Amino acid sequence: MTELDVERIRKDFPALHLTVGGKSLVYLDNAATSQKPQAVIDAVTRYYAEQNANVHRGVHYLSELATDLYEKSRKKVQKFLNAPLTCEIIFTRGATEGINLVAQTYGRAHVGAGDEVLISAMEHHSNIVPWQMLCEEKGATLRVIPMNDAGELLVEEFEKLLTPRTKMVGLSHVSNALGTVNPVKKMIAMAHANGTPVLVDGAQSAPHVPIDVQDIDCDFFVCSGHKMCGPTGIGVLFGKAPRLDAMPPYQGGGDMILSVTFEKTIFNSLPYKFEAGTPHIEGAIGLGVAVDYLAELGMERIAKWEDELLEYGTRLLSNIDGVRRIGTAPHRAAVLSFTMDCAHPHDIGQIFSDNGVAIRAGHHCAQPVMQRFGVPATARISLAFYNTKADLDAAAAAAEAVKKVFD
Length: 407
Ligand code: 7TS
Prior knowledge:
Blueprint lengths: L5 H5 L8 E2 L2 E2 L1 E2 L10 H14 L9 H21 L7 E4 L2 H16 L5 E5 L8 H10 L2 E5 L9 H7 L4 E7 L11 H10 L4 E4 L11 H4 L3 E5 L10 E5 L1 H6 L10 E4 L4 E3 L13 H17 L1 H20 L4 E4 L8 E6 L4 H10 L2 E2 L1 E3 L4 H7 L4 E5 L6 H18 L1
Parallel strand pairs: 3-15, 5-6, 5-7, 7-8, 8-9
Antiparallel strand pairs: 1-2, 4-10, 9-10, 11-12, 13-14, 14-17, 16-17
């Protein structure tokens, strides 16, 4: 396997060449959102300049062109996730909307009073709150798979929590707060042995590791385009066709119907049943270009380079006195969360920013993770394939600057 030519790749990303406050930007907040390559920016601009029309309704040239581009993107995403069928790819606003869609359709139809929904202790709020809302509505109970002090899920506890009452499992593939890569394939097999479907939150895995929804055998998989070099406001829900087919629609409106009378509406087939209204056309087109871009670099190569960066960054941080790493599982991806004895994470984030280094500080929309580790917040470095060891050197220098100010 040849290695990534990171210096060449960086030329594709205009934002990586910005200066902030007179310093070259070092962008290490990729878990929040990734930067975009010129090809994606161009695709979005081209759509508005040369291809703009609504999809699935016009017989005129532009509408057919826009529809063709929109549907080609669906195929590209299908290939990227290795989904068996194109109609199993639903365009959403993002991972959050995908999870809400499943909770409100599959969940409402299958979870009843006394049932249980099982999620992990390291979920993002978007894979907690929709299930909590569903459980409250239905009189069901939300159960939580615990984790150890390294931030690894306790798989044997998961097995014990699976009972005939468990109607749904929601699992993050990679934790945004800890970086832990969860053994989803194994856990999905265990859930299936219990007759329970599994939704995998791939918001933090799809940008970093090869995804094969057939291999892991998940029932649902969600991800966000903006974390994968694509536009904001576009994401993907993969669902196994028989499950999606049996689910009621999420929203009603145009495009999701075959026929409407005041007495009765016949819903459209997959995937349109779940795409009510005018979709985010340029977002889907841009996402298609983004997944092509990632696939051309090669997700295996991306994962290998990011692993090398993660190891390098972990070593740098571990050598700084007073740094506590949060999330020390052996199998992690792209995320380095930490606290420092001398400063609050928000102050760390500010001083990093003063040094041109963009990281995130806060609870990362994973407050239960913060509670589990007894911290109010963490500072978080999160990587992408276009990052370099020099970026991590700059982060380490910024951490030393924090110590100078606060120690
Ligand atoms: N799931 C995980 C694991 C995430 O990390 C995020 C966003 C989401 C779901 C929601 O994605 P959205 O695109 O629908 O908003 N995580 C982060 C983060 O770590 N920092 O900012 C957003």
